Amino acid sequence: MLISKSEEAFHALYASQAGGVRRFLRGMVGGNHQVAEELTQDAFIKAWKALPTFAFKSTLKTWVYTVALNTARDWLRGHGGKTFVALDPETLNAAETESAEVRAVREALLELDEETRALLMLHYYEDLDLQEIAKILGIPQGTVKSRLFTAKGKLRPKLVAKGFAV
Amino acid sequence: MKNEFEKLDRFMREHKPALETSRPMKAPRARSWWLPVAAGAALAVALVVTVNIQNHNAALEQEAVAGMEALDWDMNEDELPADVSDLVALVD
To answer: Domain range spanning residue B91?
Structure first.
């Protein structure tokens, strides 16, 4: 169905993955809703255009996240690796409704380098297993496991500094 | 083996941001190969028709001039030739 490139197929892919992809991208770029929205649309358009090259070596889910991660990397590179939280109404509104803990976690993740941040978000937020994360990051599963251990070791003191006993 | 990040893992999973809704988007349409071909073909047909009309008009003009020359008749100065006059009278 997807290879037929029908609009219905695209909508099915978008409906099932857009929420997670947008959450992931928002975390990557610093909580900015507008940027996350633009990058989500951008990632899905790229995924759609590249669909004929999809070789079924991974699931569509991991493939879409791979495109999303590359989209985030491009954006961060274009902004000198700097993330920022814009004061657009949607972001401010979300900041009000988000719990203090969730905000603190977001901030702690933003203090980490982008590769560590991506790894932790794929693991904790998107609930992807080692094999899926390995596909997305293009590294062996064993490397994912060791990097995850290191990443958790980097995250914990950030949260402790914010007053959480983790 | 004890997971030394057990508390961190639990904390992180308990404080996961909610799934976010994106605005619906339209599937980008693949560029059809036939669209530029059809546009090109339509332009070519329009050009051919225009050239044909121009050629046809030029041919008619030439024919008219040749006819006038054959009759040795200047439409600004001369009366209608007798045979044409007869024809006009007949039509009237």
So the answer is: 33-92
Closest CA to B20 of A78, A98, A113, A100: A98
Structure tokens at B57: 């008009």
In a domain, B15, yes or no: no
- Rounded to two decimals, the ipTM of the complex is 0.81
CB–CB contact B16 A27 (8 Å): no
Q: Is residue B9 part of a domain?
A: no
- Give a yes or no: residue B40 inside a domain: yes
CA of B9, closest CA in chain A: separation in Å? Answer: 8
Q: Does residue B27 lie within any of the structural domains?
A: no
Contact check, Cβ <8 Å, A125/B15:
no
Q: State which residue of chain B sits closest to A15, comparing Cα positions.
A: B24
On whether the CB atoms of residues A53 and A155 are closer than 8 A, the answer is no
- Encode pLDDT of A110-136 as tens digits: 999 999 999 999 999 999 999 999 999
